[in-house]
Amino acid sequence: MSVTLISDPVDSSPNQSNSLPVSPNCQEQPLNETTIIDPDRLQVDSSTQPDMVSGAAGTIKIWAIFTSTFFTIFLAEMGDKTQITTLLITAESHNPWVVFLGAGSALITTSLLGVLLGQWLARHIQPQTLERAAGLTLLLISAIIFWEVLH
Amino acid sequence: MDLQLLGLSFITVFLSELGDKSQVAAIALSGTTKSPKAIFFGTASALVLASLIGVLVGQGVAEILPTQWVKMAAAMGFAIMGTRLLWNSSKPTED
Predict the structure, then answer these.
(1) Which of A17, A19, A52, B25 minimizes the number of CB atoms within 10 Å of its CB?
(2) TM segments (chain B) (predicted)?
C-alpha cells in the first residue's frame, strides 16, 4: 500500500463513500521527509509496493539505504561482544555450522524485532520527535563506539 | 544435529544482542526510514556476515590451539563479559 498526499486548494466535493474527499483538480505530491501529513487528506492506494519509494530513483535509494546500513552495522558489530561470544562458543564446541545456524537465526530474529519496533514507534510518535530521538541515539552509539576504541 | 548446542547458541546470541547497540541502531534507523525492508536486510546480512567471520575465526583458533587452552580462554572470556554486564546493569546510570 502506498500513501500519497493530495493537495488541492478547495475541498468542494461532499464525502459520498468511504473514501476521503478529493476534488477533481487535485495534484499528487510525493512524500518526503519534510512533508507535513494531514491525515484528512491522505489517499490510500493499495496497488503499489509496500515501500514508499518507486521508480529507478527509488531503487537506487533503496540500495543506498541497504548498503549504508550494511556497512555501518557490520563495522559496529566487528569485535562486538556478540561476535566474540559466537567465536568462543564455536571454538569450544567443534561444531561450527550448528553454532552458525543458532547464532545466525538469533541475529535475524533480533534484527526483525528491532525493525518492527522501529516501525511501531513510527506509527505512534510524531515524525519530528522520532527523528530527533533517532538522531540523538545514533550519535550516542557513535560516542560509545569511539569511547570503546580509545580505551 | 546437536540440538542442545543449537539452542544454546541461539539463546546466548539472542540475549547478547537484545538491546545491543546494533539493535538499537536498527530501531533508530527503521523508525525514520521510508524503506524498512532495506534496513532489515542490511542489518540482518551485516550481522550474519559478522557472525560467520566469528565462526570461521573460532574454528581456526580451535584447530590451532590445544583444546584445553581454547576452553579455558572461552571460560575466561565469558566470565569477563558476564561480570562486566552484571556490573554495568547494577551500577546507577553514569555520565
Answers:
(1) A17
(2) 38-57
